[in-house]
Batch of 4 targets.
Target 1
Amino acid sequence: MVIVVGQQISAEIDDRTFVSLLNIYPEETLMERKVFRIAREKGYIRLSQLKEECEKILIPWQFFLVEHADLESILEHIENERVDKVSSKLLSKRQGAGNTTSRRIIDRLIRCQNFIISDQDLPNNDFCGSLKGMTIVDCVKHIRDVFDIQSSRLRSLSKKSDALDYLVGKVEDKNINVSLGVLDNNKILPTIDTAKNVYKNTSGFIIHDKKIPFIFIPSAANPDEPSARQIYTIIYLLVLIGLDAPQYYIEKDFKIAALSVGSEESLAHDVTGELLLPSSEFNELQSEDISKQYIADLSSTYKITPTAAIVILRKRGVISYSQYTSLLEDFARITQSSVKSSGLRKTPLISTSSRKFNGKYVIEKINDRIRDKSLNRIQAQYLLFGRVNKKNFRRYREFFEL
Amino acid sequence: MIIIDAKPLITGAEIDFTFPNDSFITDDINEEYLNGTDEALPKNISLIIGKIIDEATYIKNYKVMLNKFKKKSFYNMTGFGDISILAVIETLVHKEKPTLIPEKIIIVTDDSPLSSFISQEFGEVENMEVTNSNKFFGIDLP
């Protein structure tokens, strides 16, 4: 394939480079984009088209000029980092199974994590692995103690979104970086349709590190992720860090894993359930007490989804299998009928979107390095936004007074 | 003809230097500058691509230099300004069809690896000189 500038043939693009590069995020099916498809058919692409398309898919156009052997080396390095830091099961999920994972999000966060831990002598995070060998009750106590999570405070918050903010703050206070998926007009992630569909199906996961582990919660990137679900996710992923079990993640449909017995995953679900819905407060509960309204009240008080409440009660043997399926069906109908269209939403401040996606420690370090001028502005923008965007960066700097 | 790297360009703007009217930058350097400072582009600075050299040949040579110059990092997105300067030089002095304009070419850069690479790659080219900000601006900068 060749690049055409004006009427002239310019540089050649190795076909293998073209294919490898557009498959860097196979779940986004970038090869199927019209411009690239036509380019393959015709054997050429205009430089202006290449740059415009690369702007949309957030891949630097210069990558297309790299010799194939060098590109393979770069891609191999990226893949090794993914394998090193993220669950292999998460990476092996295939499109078409209804579950895919955004490798783009994984790569961005790995880069951020490497940025934080580079040239800094940070101590290991003592919470990593500290839950190993503990009983469920001891795990819950340890988490509450380490992160100072007050259940009474959590329940006192009337809005589940406030409860989520409370938990995120507590987790971040203990050197765990929390990343919340954002998908808004600030375009920190690409907003092409294929990418958006991937984000919707991306699970919550951990990016492993002994010093600053990362938690990713697919929040605004997935409109089906209400705050209560995100609360369950953050606790679950925290437990995985405590168990030193980065090979797991939380599926969109977590019921089967939660109801299984004897695995580390089910243990993590048990701890999560116990922290959010302590069994000691429900010792006298009988199955005949459980109604739809009861589940709704539990959800509201304990800041969990109705599904999570139903699963937890089933796991504890409080409700029968038929009650379990009946309640799930009831709430699935309620959820479907109450789903509101997102409509037009006001675009948040770029500082808000950046802070949410990148997380506390990334933002703090980037801002420090901008202040002491050891990080140039272009590098800062790639870390923050995945691209150069002068207007957004100016607004970002104004907000943080940089 | 003067070809200016990003750091000297920013320095020149900050000290209010009047660049000579044959001063040029590449598109990559322009982007680095516009994103690296809040100052407007200094007077007498022109984009070289399209004005002096044709873009098709430049892109061809950009690819050559991208794969030769190892200092760049796709991870940190650094080094592309250097590559653009090298691509400009290569376009001007292209060995099969030299188009070197018969006047002195001065490259202004404070980047040591870039300076070394230019000497190594284009050392035999006459009428080309690499200098740094201190010498170019004639002052001792911190």
Target 2
Amino acid sequence: MTPPLARIPPPLRRPLAIAGTAIATGATLLAFALHAHHAAQDEHQALRQRLQQLAHNHQTLLARQADARQALAEWADLRQAGLLADTPSHRLAAQLAARPAAASSTALRLAPAPSHDTPESPFILVGIGVQGRLAHDGHLLNLLEELGALKLGLLVPLACRVERAADDGPPIDIDCRFAWVSLRRDT
Amino acid sequence: MAGRTLLHLTRDGLAWHPQPPSDATPPQRFSPTHDGLARFAEHLAQHTTLRFTLLVDVPDEFFTVEPLPKLSAGDRRALLARRRERLAHETPYFTEAPLPALAGDAPADDCLFASLVRPDQLKPWLDALRHANAALTGIHSAPFAALPLLRHLPPPPGPAQARLVASLGPAGLRVSCYTGPHLRFSRLTPAEPHAWHTHVQELLRTRQHLASQRLLPRETPLQLLFIAPQAAHGAIRQLAPPDLDCVDLAALARACGAPEPPDADLTPLLHRTLARHRRIPSIHTPGLQRQHTLRRAGTALILGAALFASAAGVVAYGTLDATQTTRQDIDRLRQHIANAERAIAQAQAAIPPTSMPPERIHAAHQRLPQLLAGSQPTAALHAISRALTRFPQVSLTRLDWSFDPHDTHTAPRLDLRLALPDAAPDLADAFTQALREQTRATVSPIDGDTLDTDAPRQRLGLRLTFDTPPR
């Protein structure tokens, strides 16, 4: 059996060897260059995506910065409104409410009142009920000021009835329910 | 003849002319014997890289003009192929050349076949070359190698431009008939170099032969030329008829760029034409044709591979250059990434801490206006008081305040029950309007009550809804 190389005509053997070497060299060089180029392109693409991600992250952090600063400003507003007070218990609130002069001087009855809190609300309400007779409606206003000055939260009237009494006693009959509103701090 | 060595074959053997030609180095000669062929093969083995051109200058060459009918190109090719095949059976070595019609003749396609009638003169040398795998670029008969010299000769008369040219070489006197740039006939006669009388007689005999064999029409003007050194022109003219012209060999050599021959030998000029001209008809040799074709294919293969390798190199260089640019961009990207990471760390550190998540603070702050609206009944009461002051005849009998801090959609609400004097039918309307102005609340009647001022009334119920905190 004729070996494969012997089948090649002699005039073609040397040119085939030279051509084969040249083609192999050229192809190897080209393959190496293309491989290096593709590798560089892949790395470039990956780094570009990483940079885009970092830019996005940076923007997010800047937004969080602005958000936090705004939250601090709002926190100051909430503090200004009195909503950042330490929330007392209902009983303690009633005891504290009985101390102001307006409350003690007007024979009003102060008692803890249900506030119907909801867990999803951002605020905690500590309620107090006030019932009795007043000689003057200005006394009610004084009472509101003194209760508000206790700084147990933002004082909010939930429901209040003020009516002129028909009998001989003090002319103003009141039945009110107030609440100190403060910011819920638990997580 | 850059890179091509000339081999000159005569009846006496083969002459290997050095490349480049040199007077100091005479050609090597090989006799047509067994020893001569062996030496030739040995010499070939020592010069495997040379390329050769073989000039065949032998008397045993038979010229025939084959008239061809007017045919289409395809039919003409087929007819010529059959004639070649028939001729190849008689002799494997022949030259084929086209012969256009002579001027004045009816148009006809002729073909000249010049056959070597003694192939054994050539075959041993070709076998040696094939065995040595030598690169043989062409095999040419001497009269065909002289074709490029014709344009340096005096122009022949008549439309046929027929000339009969005599010249001397190592093998003897060659007399060739040309019409225009085409060979019609040639004959080599062994002779001594300076036997001018014999040479002239042979020239004239050839002219008669052409006429008798009707190789040229009788009335065709025929130019007679003898190429010889200037010193021999006098002797030739004395022996020749008046219509025979002499051509100075040295001048002809200078005209075609060949070295001036030392004697009357035309061979150096033939060497020159073979070196400078590539379209000289060659002797058909089947085996060497294939080798020549393979060699050309090999050259084409090398050129193609070199072209591919060059193109690949150029593309690779360009690609590597682009890769270098990409690497520089990568370095810049890495720098940008490092800067971005530092900026992120700084931004992260600059976020101020809050006592609780900002979104919870936002949610609480969003409810603040509503809470503030609901937490300020004092302002509302003062506003109501101002309204009541403007209308002293109206008295407040009952006041109901309600507010739900948990309900974000409901504003604080204040219900007023008022007592009015009978005699003021439009008092309710006026008081309601004043109340609106003072409190900035939405004022509406309570529980189906109306503000119809036509009927006198003693009681009035109004509902105040505070969307904005009262002044």
Target 3
Amino acid sequence: MVLDIMTSSRRINLTLDGRRVTVVVEESEGRMVININDEKVEVALVSKNEDEIVLKTSDGRSFSFAVERSGGDLITLWLGGIAYRAELSRPYSATRRAAVEQAQHGVITCPVPGKVIKLMVDEGSVIDAGQPLAVLESMKTEIMIGAPHKGIVKKIHIKTGQSVVKGQLLIELEPQNPNQ
Amino acid sequence: MREIRKVLIANRGEIALRIIRACRELGVKPVTVYSDVDAGSLPVRLSDSSYALGGSEPSESYLNIEKIIKIARLSGVDAVHPGYGFLSENPLFAKRCEEEGIIFIGPSSRTLELAGNKVECRRVVSSAGVPTVPGVDRPVELEEALSFADKVGYPVMLKAVYGGGGRGIRVVNNPEELRQAYSIAAAEAGTAFGRTALYVEKIIKPARHIEFQILADRSGNVVHLHERECSIQRRFQKLVEISPSPALDEELRATMGEVAVAAARAINYMNAGTIEFLLDRERRLYFIEVNARLQVEHPVTEMRTGIDIVKQQILLAGGEALPFSQDEIRPIGAAIECRINAEDPLSDFAPSTGRVIRLHIPNGPGVRVDTALYEGMELSAFYDSLIAKLVCWGVSFEEARRRCLRALNEMRIEGIATTAPLHKAVLEDRDFISGNLDTDFIERRKILEKVKKQIEEEKNSVQLYAVAAAIAYFRNNMQRPTRQEQTRERRRIVGARYYDLI
């Protein structure tokens, strides 16, 4: 039996653009073979630094991904104006993610920086899933903020005319008890 | 006649940079102003001096007349160039400049007042013999709008009297829609333009949007620099502009040029401006409006004529005579402009903000890019989303078209979504190639569907390579979990009693 000590193979769990995938990676001397559900590609790593990863295929095509700095296990790669988001799935990440998710339940944050131009509900309003709650203006475009689920408006953290940044807490909702 | 030695640029972004370049070539000192978010921008870095406006909202900065006038006085400029948008067509601003003895680079405040009242301007050019889109000749209330629409037939367009630039327009298809839309349109006009007055025009469909560039000196000499066709639009906002227009032969071009000059004379136009027309299927022309300012798409004309319109603006404002006659203006070849916006064509053109993490601006023969982007720049939400203009010239339309495609494929703007895929789809469309254009082009040719399909295909084919790149990145960059996280994880696994497993 011959042991190929030059090739190492491992499984990696990733979330790619929100989808969970299991990747089988075989590496040898700077070349990688990536296998997802029997779809395979082989690449050579040409260069890698904080801002860019350049890969080359065996038929001479080059992929030069620009790296958007992200924290920890999340990376966003850009090529041709399209974003590819990959996140490592690891047990520690799962715990952290669950905690973050729980904290975010019933919370609406601002998707893009802009200005609040209209508020359609008050604290205490009963709302349906999808109901328009507020309108933002960003780059001369109007963006409608809708309710992610049925419930009651618990607290409104913004007022009309206020400038808001991405990620800013806008509105807190109390989900309606499904048993009611 | 007054020599202009120092100019204040009351604008930002790519057009501020454009004006700085014209100033430099004339030996004129450029002074810029900036809002908080523009403090690190290219125009600020490349001007002789720069003044903070304080604030980031347009109302606190680029739309604030008194702040700008104060800075103009302080910096001792001879003239102000307002660029496009912002205060460029604001008669109050032009008047304030006139009061302060500062030259406003553009038409007079009186002309701006007239050109800004879209229905009055129509009436004035119409009485000078210019054919206009069938419409009312003064602002109308709902009842008058209804009776006009009954007379000419639906669909009609409800337009804001003080609108312009494709804003404040609503299409109504029948009397019920008109009844419902009227008060909403009036309220929107009030919010956007300060006045609720509306007027009505018949809709010409199918139509081609063809405009003529005008230059006029203080002595009343007026020339046109030929046309640009801007039929490729979405929601009345131009996406791609071309010159020459495939719809015009020499005769029609000459006629339209004369009509454009007549319209400009009728309102005593001075400096640079554009007269917009619609051409219907029977090749009848109709005046729509005057754009009393330098336009976004001016490079298309510059590339064909060799005339630097912004330099001409500064010279004409200083009292120079037009240096060429109509016969001496002979455009060569063809030019196409693509307006690259920071918008995501897949999310209904939602504006994209973020950092430009990688930038490569294309170059080479016949390729011009007007932009104030730089690598590392952070895009904000305060201003409109135009971030770059790609303008390509070719000896023929086909060469210009291929050049645009070559340049778009070479260009890299990473970190934000842009409309580049949309432009590629337009440039590759067979009706675009054959010059079969009208203002319905984007919908008629299902461009957005093509873009969606193309992006999805690209995403599918690149995805595996992105995974490979991510794994290569993670390999040496994986973060070890913190001690606290390790302990918490062990506790969770083991339960109420835990053992330190080290």
Target 4
Amino acid sequence: MKLDPSDPTPPPSPLPRTTRATLLWRFALGAVLGLFLHYLLYRISLPIEPFIYVAF
Amino acid sequence: MRSRLPTLALLAGLIAGFGLAVFFGAAAESYSKPDRFKRFHPFISPESLFYPTFSSLETLALARWHRGQTLVIIGGNSVLNGVGQPEDRLWSLRLQELLGPDFVVVNLSFRGAFPSEAGALVAESLLRRDVPVIYVANTSPGGVVRAFEGFYRHFFWAARARHALHDWPVREKDLAFRLASLPEVKRHEREEEMRGAALDRWFHFQALWQHVAYRYAFTVWNRVTGNASLRPRDTFPDDEAAPPPVAERFGPNLTREMEIVRSVTAPLATPSANDGWTVDATRLASAGDDLEKTFPPSLRPRMLMLLSQNSPYHRAQLTAAERARDDAVFAAYAALWREHGIASAIYGTDFAVEDFRDRTHLTPSGGDRLAALVAREIRALSAQNR
């Protein structure tokens, strides 16, 4: 691409491969965390002991 | 902008992961397996930390029903859950045989459940959706525990959060009153349970992870499953054993068992002048009030409440006066249920010793007798409700 000498703003450069990989890995990590958060909602609603050992 | 991209990617992944879980949870709500479902045995019930959802109970029932049939929902406790009966001799299977194809019987009872819990809520919900239901449960003489006060109250919270139940101001007022009467710690506990149910309505976490626990892997160690805790629950069999020989059934803990037998009716009646018994009117009225606030009027004509007598072996250990008290109290409470529009029947009084596995649970032969009685009552109820 030919640079316009009168335009001081540098052109945007495409994301390097390492940055794309980082973003993908961050997204995947976020997805796992999201799934884990969903699991936590289930897990915290469970009693510690089955009620039958507490009540009987 | 670029320096924020990794954070935004993380956030986008979080939302996507959570959203995907919600999506699969919503799909799991309509899971109607297992095809071979017969009852909630200990490995697929809260006894072992497996909590079937309210939706799964509804779906289990609906998946087996076809238009033109009457759906018979069995609720109640371990007696109707068939403790003492191996899976292939379960009394509700015999009931299905006796009733024939015009009815479909689904056993939604749980050990330790009260008649207002689980199956009662499913019956109410499906009746509201114009499914012809008959609800059968069991109890003892005495008061009626509310659906939001028992071990299985999570079904009530879930059904309420989903607006599955009748809009019934009497119950809402009763709930508010009884919550306000609780000690602070218990009240906060209940409020947290309600909040959890409200969240679950939108995020379906119970449905998804119970489904995973059932099909793929359970993720919580517990005493009941022990070293097999991680196994998926559909690999656990219904291992209810056949009852031992009669001679071995009733001896263990007889003293304690007889205390229980006497305690069923002793608080509910006082000796009267003519060597008879007077059933305590205050307790009777209180039980009537419980009924009025627990079972919605639309469900009552479609209910059968079984009053569970103790085994003949244990009743034979009572004095004549104690047996007379038993008879008087059972008769009075059976009449009470009927006065409030709910059919009731006492069973066990004319059963044989062999029909009981212990003080209260029935053997396969006892289950067959119970099925015959219940089938008669259901036919009568069904005719009345046409």
